[in-house]
Amino acid sequence: MESYRDLGARLSNWNRWGPEDERGTVNFITPDKLVTAARLIRTGKMFDLGIPFGADGPQPGGGRVNPVHLMRETGENQDFPGGFHFADDYIFMPLQSASQWDGLSHVFYDGHLYNGYSSAHVDSHGAKKLSIDKMGKGIAGRGVLLDIARLKGVDHMQAGEVITPEDLDQAMAAQGVQVGTGDILLIRTGWRNVFTSSGDARAFMSGEPGIGLACCEWLDSREVAAIACDNWAVEVLPSETDDALPVHCVLIRDLGMTLGEILDFEELSADCTQDGVYEFFLAAPPIKFAKAVGSPINPLAIK
Amino acid sequence: MESYRDLGARLSNWNRWGPEDERGTVNFITPDKLVTAARLIRTGKMFDLGIPFGADGPQPGGGRVNPVHLMRETGENQDFPGGFHFADDYIFMPLQSASQWDGLSHVFYDGHLYNGYSSAHVDSHGAKKLSIDKMGKGIAGRGVLLDIARLKGVDHMQAGEVITPEDLDQAMAAQGVQVGTGDILLIRTGWRNVFTSSGDARAFMSGEPGIGLACCEWLDSREVAAIACDNWAVEVLPSETDDALPVHCVLIRDLGMTLGEILDFEELSADCTQDGVYEFFLAAPPIKFAKAVGSPINPLAIK
Amino acid sequence: MESYRDLGARLSNWNRWGPEDERGTVNFITPDKLVTAARLIRTGKMFDLGIPFGADGPQPGGGRVNPVHLMRETGENQDFPGGFHFADDYIFMPLQSASQWDGLSHVFYDGHLYNGYSSAHVDSHGAKKLSIDKMGKGIAGRGVLLDIARLKGVDHMQAGEVITPEDLDQAMAAQGVQVGTGDILLIRTGWRNVFTSSGDARAFMSGEPGIGLACCEWLDSREVAAIACDNWAVEVLPSETDDALPVHCVLIRDLGMTLGEILDFEELSADCTQDGVYEFFLAAPPIKFAKAVGSPINPLAIK
Amino acid sequence: MESYRDLGARLSNWNRWGPEDERGTVNFITPDKLVTAARLIRTGKMFDLGIPFGADGPQPGGGRVNPVHLMRETGENQDFPGGFHFADDYIFMPLQSASQWDGLSHVFYDGHLYNGYSSAHVDSHGAKKLSIDKMGKGIAGRGVLLDIARLKGVDHMQAGEVITPEDLDQAMAAQGVQVGTGDILLIRTGWRNVFTSSGDARAFMSGEPGIGLACCEWLDSREVAAIACDNWAVEVLPSETDDALPVHCVLIRDLGMTLGEILDFEELSADCTQDGVYEFFLAAPPIKFAKAVGSPINPLAIK
Fold first, then answer.
1. Tens of pLDDT along B254-264?
2. Closest CA to D90 of C121, C100, A1
3. Using the beta-carbon criterion (under 8 Å), do D43 and C64 form an inter-chain contact?
4. Neighboring chain C residues of A129 at a CB cutoff of 8 Å
5. CA–CA min distance C265, chain B (Å)
6. In chain B, which residue ranges form alpha helices assigned H by DSSP?
7. Are B187 and B251 in contact (CB under 8 A)?
8. pLDDT tens-digit map of C4-15
9. Can you tell me the mean pLDDT for D251-260?
10. Strand, coil or helix: what is B173?
């Protein structure tokens, strides 16, 4: 198998949108793509793809914990003129603990970030380049769901089960939909069900079905703008090679493609199966955290 | 002047969408409204209305601090197979410290939340009713900008300066746009400029121009779905009466209308002035924080 | 068995040190007690009884998480004149997630805190009465270790195993030490070993050996100033009765006795066994968190 | 003036306590010093030198914010058997935002920490060497207060006012006390009053009186174990040279001396003036935060 470095070098988008670019493949979403995507809103059905953010989320502890939500004001023991009361609250969380976009500064290798920026731009002060707020004017466009779990007739695929380009092609054919330039591709593995059925964060995080390295070329050739999944790392784990997260390396650092993770496609999938429509308008703006390497999201799919 | 309690009782939407409703006026955004709103995406121009989230934000301290962003991993001193490196980060913040939706559990009086829910539903465990995640399947629809600062020919209106229904009517007339059922109304006061020009959080928070109590009836009669402003509390401060935040009380608790605050309309305003188009598709999904009384947002306005 | 309410009423210290008192039994540590305690520093051996505070602590998640330590500055990418570099860091944690004093506002029943204060003094703004900083001028004095695990000849006692007054008496006799007015009593169950040997936070938190209700009278009659243990709740769990944490209720709310929890007595215990000296000077100042209901500690035992 | 680098090289304690040492000058506090120090507890008077930790502390914002205290449980809406209620709370704070020990990993230059450890030991994962928990078995011993503000007859010294070795000598003579091996030296500048009288964090942080570089040799020659002050950086600011924090560099990195900052000596000072006794037992244990570069403290001075 071609090494991920060779693959990344071959597919590289560095300098494709100029030496100053910090947005990568979302550049494929040109204004005309947005106009076309808007026409997919035909019935007004809306699906929210973010999971709940709270203490019972999918993080088993370690480097990332689940969001901790704390009330600052509950309305009690307030004495404002006229009887006004208010509640207020705080959150403490890893920005990538639940539904999220990976920023392009999230992953790198060999001392370089996407577009050739030095990895020294990421330090304890945050990301001076490629931070998630650079994606603030986005991410929205045509969304397409490829439902691989349904294609394979399973509630959920298995940890370590690789999604191949052929799977993607077959899903397109079976669903009667095409993936093209500027699309935001959603791939359903059913892995979210492993967590929601058991509440077992450790099982959810122990591995996952996901795309293999060969899909990188598929995504590149179709000029996909972004990819998002219902697992926690998009790519298959354990990996096909001995490398740690090689698909992350190629997609984020070489293609400049942001990854959406820990999403919930169950309601959307059921609806698509019913009406046979697997395309929609997708609006998934990141919160503009300055110098951050990722952002929580709640993507809206609207048909 | 009619007391805010009398006004609230008169305009009340309690039980309008059933006794179990937790979404209030966003119910005005019916599927057909979404379909119609989508047609406003004509050129693919996109505007991100969220402000940057970081240490230099508009909170001067006290009950709310600015977001504190901390890196957990920077890529240094990692030793993953194959050369993979990753960065990861945490945020600590009040959920309403920057661009935000107020949840319907954020404000109440006389022991009741919107729709008659007891205020006892809000306690140190969070909001059992009317939490912001109940708005997760939203908030998107037709957005309309009424640019009151421009109407008055000022860079920014003054603290304590009341926006009246007549101002709103005049802005509609001057701009050639109507506000109707299910619209998300953006009102520009220019107050955001007070902060961005000086960086002075204390000045920004010391008061603000905003809508007066009379606008509540205007918003109610037009069946507006949500309102959002470039100040920090939507309503004029100091208030017209001796009551604390009476517009909050009426809109959130009686009408069930969520408020968007601390937004940036400068780029959008400039564009609207140029092309004369003050309506657009707006996608502003809250992050689904469980039991939370508000959420950070980055609304996308798309023409 | 006498109900914990009856027991608490019988042993109550309310008003013993006046109606304004917020310090409870630490009042037993009078200046002369401090002078006497200081004479126990005879060889200069020092033992630090706090456990490490970090991500791999004994909290399995839920209401309390382990401390999250995050670096703000690491020295890299700084450019101060003369070559100065500094590192800086943040902590996010439940105040009672590791070694700790319970404040007297930590536990209550029937609407009253210690000394008759209304429980309404504790709200989302913190504790207006009996907060831990009221103990700031302390807690130090004569410490005595009663090593019950060693008395019973076990590495650690079992969950649900009750320590009785007879156990305490036998330990005093076996060790040749008396517990008296103003002493800070340390009781070793060995339960800490359950966590350190396995790293299993869930096992550690699933129950514990500890003192039973009958010990409350024993502690009261000897005028003990404070009690601290190497388990996480001082008292036996599951409890002897169907009540939740009845010993907490009696000691904290009725006697006004603060509890020290999640401490490490292993090194101290080994030393005491060797030299036969079970008394020492103990200095365990809480950090003065305003309005807090507990504080992290690192008690020093000095012989 | 000798450069701080030359001064540091001349006074260096590297390797004095072996190549593995991580405790520096606190090694001067030998067991016999502890025994002698304990004899200073003669009347049982106790002074707590920590300041309150809360939202109204001395941090004006920026890299360090004041501690944010949030309640997790207030006792309301709990339903435990038997009527038990509990309160619980969280803290978010920079470890050096209020009363604190600087760890020996807090400051460095020229790529080396104290004792020659590479500064690469400090990264986004924390301090692998010289973290504050290495001081866990301490810091306690003989404390001596040199009251320079009182010597100069002022409420507080001025920002930029240098404390010299002569000042220290004169204070010793005036107070009739000697500073010697293993002592923890407290220097009072009165600067704490600038904050407590005005609540103005910015004024407090804008500069300070403190020791100058010449005092490093004085501290070294007397074999002082640790130094602590009522300002926020021990040393005079603005500095005597163009270097940033040169006294920090020499004391922490070359001598291996930990610094105590943002303490409150007012009550202690008043008492010392009254009884003429400027020595006492001091117990100031750091909380054992793993890999941390500093710790909050509440030092107890006991006479």
1. 999 999 999 99
2. C100
3. no
4. none
5. 32
6. 4-11, 31-38, 148-151, 165-175, 192-198, 201-205, 214-221, 246-248, 266-275
7. no
8. 999 999 999 999
9. 98
10. helix
CA distance A298 to A66: 16
Contact C43 D52 (CB under 8 A): no
Residues of C103-124 as b/e, b for ≥16 C-beta within 10 angstroms?
bbbbbbbeebbbbebebbbbbb
Model confidence at B121: pLDDT above 90? yes
Cβ-proximal residues to A198 (8 Å cutoff; 6+ apart), any chain: none
Distance (Å, whole) CA D245 – CA D224: 20
**D contacts of C51 (beta carbons < 8 Å):** 288
Q: Show residues of chain D in contact with B124, CB under 8 Å.
A: 71-74, 76-77
Give B85-108 pLDDT, tens digit per residue: 999 999 999 999 999 999 999 999
Name the 3-class secondary structure at C281.
strand
Give the nearest partner residue to B54 out of A38, A290, A294, using CB atoms. A290
Query: Nearest-CA neighbor of A254 among A20, A25, A94?
Result: A25
* Strand-pair category, B184-188 with B140-147: parallel
Helix (H) or strand (E) holding C1: none
Nearest 5°: the CA angle D240, D205, D286 is 95
Give the pLDDT confidence score for residue C61 in this predicted structure: 85
The share of chain B scoring above pLDDT 70, in percent, equals 100
Residue type, D216: C
The DSSP-derived string for D26-79 is: GGG--HHHHHHHHTT-SS--EEE-PPPBSTTSS--SSS----EEEEEE-STT--
Radius of gyration of chain D (CA): 20
Spell out which chain A residues touch chain C, with contact meaning CB-CB distance below 8 angstroms: 55, 61-62, 65-66, 68, 71-74, 76-77, 92, 120, 123-125
pLDDT of the residue at A116:
98
Written as one letter, the residue type at C105 is S
∠C1-C2-C7 over CA atoms, to 5°? 145
Q: What is the mean pLDDT of residues A275-296?
A: 98
Most A CBs within 10 A among C56, C95, C124, hence the mutation to make, goes to C124
Least trusted range by pLDDT, from B59-73, B158-172, D159-173 = B59-73
**Sequential DSSP letters for A258-276:** EEEES---HHHHHHHHHH-
Which chain B residues are Cβ-neighbours of A250 within 8 angstroms? none
Mean pLDDT, residues A259-269 taken together: 98
CA angle D183, D184, D187 (to 5 degrees): 120
Per CB-CB distance under 8 Å, the chain D contacts of C289 are: 53-54, 67, 69, 89, 91
pLDDT, chain B, mean: 97
How far apart, in Å, are the Cα atoms of C271 and each of C1, C158, C191?
Answer: 38, 23, 18
Helix, coil or strand: residue B72: strand
Residue whose entry in the numeric block shows the structure tokens 């503000």 = D149
CA atoms of C185 and B41, how far apart (whole Å): 73
pLDDT at D256 (0 to 100): 98
Do residues C130 and A82 make contact, with C-beta atoms less than 8 angstroms apart?
Answer: no
Residue B50 pLDDT grade (very low, low, confident, very high; cuts 50, 70, 90): very high
Distance CA B23, CA B135 (A): 6
Q: Cα–Cα distance between B4 and B1 in angstroms, integer?
A: 9
B255 secondary structure, DSSP code: I
pLDDT over 90 (residue C163): yes
- Chain A residues with CB under 8 Å of a chain D CB are 68, 70-72, 74, 76, 90, 92, 124
Q: Do A82 and B244 touch (CB under 8 A)?
A: yes
Q: pLDDT tens-digit profile of C88-126?
A: 999 999 999 999 999 999 999 999 999 999 999 999 999
- How much is the pLDDT for C62? 82
